[in-house]
Amino acid sequence: MAINAGTGAGSAVALALPLSVFLQMWRNFCYAVPGSWAGTKIQEALDARDLKRANILHLTVVPLSLGIPSALLVFISLYFGADGINAALNAIPQVVLDGFNVAAGVLSCVGLAMLIKIMSNNKILPYLFLGFIAVVYLGMDVIGVAVAGLCVALIAVFNMKFDEEEDF
């Protein structure tokens, strides 16, 4: 829209920022309410061995509750511009916005807990904590930590010693 209007990058950022915040709030709602309802219904269908119903729910509920409204929100926001989006965001009560801020803080803890649960192997768990420390306390970005992790993994693999097996 900013390119078509010829207004430049500042206009694009002014439009993209509120739109992205609004769409992220909508996505969180869609994954929380219709998504969790669909997950429950899909699990019930799978328990009843009704794969056709589970597939239909999987392919319709979340895409319809997320995709079509998101497309409409993008269209409406492009039609009304950044001022319309900012007006809609300002209409949201501060209590709700504070709740979203708290939820965003909790989500990082939940993500870390999920990683710890998945990587509960005592041999690789220290690497997770090293990455966490690098991001939080050393201020490294995720790409830098990933590259450093790749280097550590390559060093570990190259220094491994394997017992040679005899050919039969």
UniProtKB/TrEMBL annotation:
Lineage of source species: Bacteria, Bacillati, Actinomycetota, Coriobacteriia, Coriobacteriales
Biological process according to GO: phosphoenolpyruvate-dependent sugar phosphotransferase system
Cellular localisation: Cell membrane
Membrane topology: Multi-pass membrane protein
Keyword Membrane: yes
Keyword set, alphabetical order: Cell membrane, Membrane, Phosphotransferase system, Sugar transport, Transmembrane, Transmembrane helix, Transport
Membrane-spanning intervals of the chain: 56-80, 100-116, 128-158
Protein name as annotated: Uncharacterized protein
Organism: Collinsella tanakaei YIT 12063
Superkingdom of origin organism: Bacteria
GO cellular component: plasma membrane
Main location: membrane
